[in-house]
Amino acid sequence: MATADAIAALQARFPELHFTPLPLLRYPDGRDSGQYWLRVPAERLLEVARFARDDPRTRFEQLCDLAGVDYLNFPGARERFAVIYSLLSLTHNHRLWLKVFVNDPDPVVPSVTGIWRGAEWPEREVFDLFGIRFAGHPDLRRILCPEGITDHPLRKDYPLRGRGEREAFSVVTRETA
Amino acid sequence: MGLSATLPTAVATRGDYTTTRLDYVVDMIRKYGINWARKNSLWPMPFATACCGIEFMAVAASRYDLARFGSEACRFSPRQSDLLIVAGRVVMKMLPVLQRIYTQMAEPKWVISMGACASSGGVFDTYAVVQGIDQFLPVDVYLPGCPPRPETILEGIMAIQRIVAEDGVRSSRERGRGLRLVVQPAPVVTLGAGLREGSLAERACRPVLDREPAE
């Protein structure tokens, strides 16, 4: 089964969502990369993800990756944030990407940890670096930044050199050591 | 017979203390005995977080052979080492760990800041990377390079040996505050026109500024 069958199955199951597969990459000569993504509204994500994992035509057993994107000042972007789910079917050897777009303020996406257990740490990472909350996550804490940081460093409006976090340490001198 | 009869006679009196011949003997033992032994058996603790650590491994291996300088016994416990080699970039989450490791080392102790990243942040001018560990930690020797050549690392170890020989058995507390460049380059090193010794020391001591001041 090819990716097209999985997309067709999703389109047949969720006709009201009007899934249009878009290529991840388009080459200058007009061909595309053969890898497609679907836009999923946040409130239907759990339903779509569970169907994508369980239906015999899709069978996306594995969540390869989960990433966040900040589209601030991106040409043509309507929503500010996206969460991207990279799916792989080990049964059919096909891949599909789901994108969920959310907006300021207080971007919230339902957590898929109940469907793919491995989403727990990637969701913590996206929460840490982008400030996107995942509703229903069992343990939504920061994972990379130290405790006490209140910002989300991968947001585009965060200054590259930070807001003084790298200077905020006590000085150990020879006298105090 | 009193105890004073067994002590050497005083050779000089300055203010509130008297120097005896025994003091001279102790000084000689310190200078030529303890210091000599100590500088030829430095126990490095490599705090290797990046490619500088790989280069340090090359120095410790057979080709460059750090054992020639008596410091081949790398210990990964701060309690067993007296030379901290910070090799690689230090991020804001790692700096408190590094400071704790430094305070856990027993006196006397020395610190080498190895490579561009540990000394200045290097190319990683971002929110997470500390722009020079000498802002928060006393550093004895800075090694330039990205990463430094093994010869540079050997020169750094030898600079530490010169510090040990000059500084005596004083602890780092007694060596005084801060961020001084306490050793001059070896006499065989000729500095370029833009790197006079004074300006070198100045640059080493200059605080790292987030932004250059406006002209």
Q: Outline of this structure?
A:
The complex is a heterodimer of chains A (177) and B (215). Chain A is an alpha/beta fold and 177 residues long.
Give the helices and strands, then pairings.
The complex is a heterodimer of chains A (177) and B (215).
Chain A: H1 3-13, E1 22-23, E2 36-39, H2 45-54, E3 62-70, E4 81-89, E5 94-102, E6 108-110, H3 120-130, E7 133-135
Parallel strand pairs in A: 2-5, 6-7
Antiparallel strand pairs in A: 1-2, 3-4, 4-5
Chain B: E1 10-14, E2 17-20, H1 21-39, E3 44-48, H2 51-60, E4 83-87, H3 95-104, E5 110-114, H4 115-120, E6 141-143, H5 150-167, H6 197-205
Parallel strand pairs in B: 3-4, 4-5, 5-6
Antiparallel strand pairs in B: 1-2
Structure characterization notes:
The complex is a heterodimer of chains A (177) and B (215). Helix content of chain A is 18%, strand content 22%. With 177 residues, chain A is an alpha/beta fold. Chain A has a single domain (2-167), classed as NADH:ubiquinone oxidoreductase Nqo5 subunit (Beta Polymerase, domain 2, 2-Layer Sandwich), CATH 3.30.460.80. In chain A, strands 1-2-5-4-3 form a five-stranded mixed β-sheet. The longest helix of chain A has 11 residues, at 3-13. Chain A is elongated and about 70 Å long. Chain A starts with a helix and ends in a 42-residue tail after the last strand. Chain B is α/β, with parallel strands linked by helices and 215 residues long. Chain B has a single domain (21-178), classed as Rossmann fold (3-Layer(aba) Sandwich). Chain B is built from six helices and six strands. Chain B has helices spanning 21-39, 51-60, 95-104, 115-120, 150-167, 197-205; strands spanning 10-14, 17-20, 44-48, 83-87, 110-114, 141-143. In chain B, the strands form two sheets. In chain B, strands 3-4-5-6 form a four-stranded parallel β-sheet. A two-stranded antiparallel sheet of chain B has the order 1-2. In chain B, helix 1 packs antiparallel against helix 5 (150-167) and helix 2 (51-60) packs across helix 5 (150-167). The longest helix of chain B has 19 residues, at 21-39. Chain B starts with 9 loop residues before the first strand and ends in a 10-residue tail after the last helix. The A-B interface holds A 144-146, 153, 158-163, 165-167, 169-175, 177 and B 92-93, 95-96, 99, 102-103, 125-131, 135-138, 172-173, 175-178, 210.
